[in-house]
Amino acid sequence: MTEKDWLASLPPPLLQVEDLSFYYGDQVGCLDINFQLYPGEVLGIVGESGSGKSTLLNCLSGHQPPSSGRVMFDHRQQGLVDLFALSEPERRLLMRTDWGLVRQNPRDGLRMNLSAGGNVGERLMAVGARHYGHIRGQAEQWLGRVEIASDRLDHLPTTFSGGMQQRLQIARNLVSQPRLIFMDEPTGGLDVSVQAKLLDLLRGLVRDLNIAAIVVTHDLAVVRLLADRLLVMRQGRVVESGLTDQVLDDPQHPYTQLLVSSVLQV
Description:
The chain is of the alpha/beta class. The chain has a domain at about 110-175. It contains ten helices and ten strands. A six-stranded mixed β-sheet has the order 6-7-8-3-9-10, sandwiched between helices. Strands 2-1-4-5 form a four-stranded antiparallel β-sheet, covered by helices on one side. A hairpin with a 2-residue loop joins strand 1 (about 15-25) and strand 2. It is globular, with a radius of gyration of 18 Å.
């Protein structure tokens, strides 16, 4: 199936990025980025350090207004809206409900002074849950879904391994059933065996819950496993895009060819 045929089978886009650029002074962070993300789709963004992928993620996730261009999101009440035309309270509500963000360092995405159950429960309270028994029950259920034993419910994240902290961060993000989740190097810094288990877990959860996701990474093995489509970035620009397997199996741009061959030679 070609990318065009695959896209034609999808519903209207959940996220639409139009001519997005960001500058650090006179330096290009990212330039003229255009793509659409569909419900349930996983999009990978890859490139070496300094390629602009993290800058792009910050703009897409609402943490950094672009210098030009728009990030359009299919808002439940308002339809397709410009993310940065929303008020600050509206954007914050969106980030607590329809969006999630899994950070590379789980300590940046967790409240380390709250128990594991408290971390998950806090997200539920942000979307209106108030019944203690229900919140605790949901927290325990989600710990089970990310393979954390229920007897760790009242333990602090500081007592968890790095892999367990990352699984807890995933549970904290997914408990509110967001429609879109951003992942910034979700397996970075973890041992290879832990990475593999975490990727299997992520793939299953994203598919089961039909969540759209944007995964930013330098690791082609991560996007090979998770992503339906792929953007390859170099010096702030998208140099190649397409279905993940097609891009990785038959790269057209010299930079993509270099990335793929570097992995094969390792």
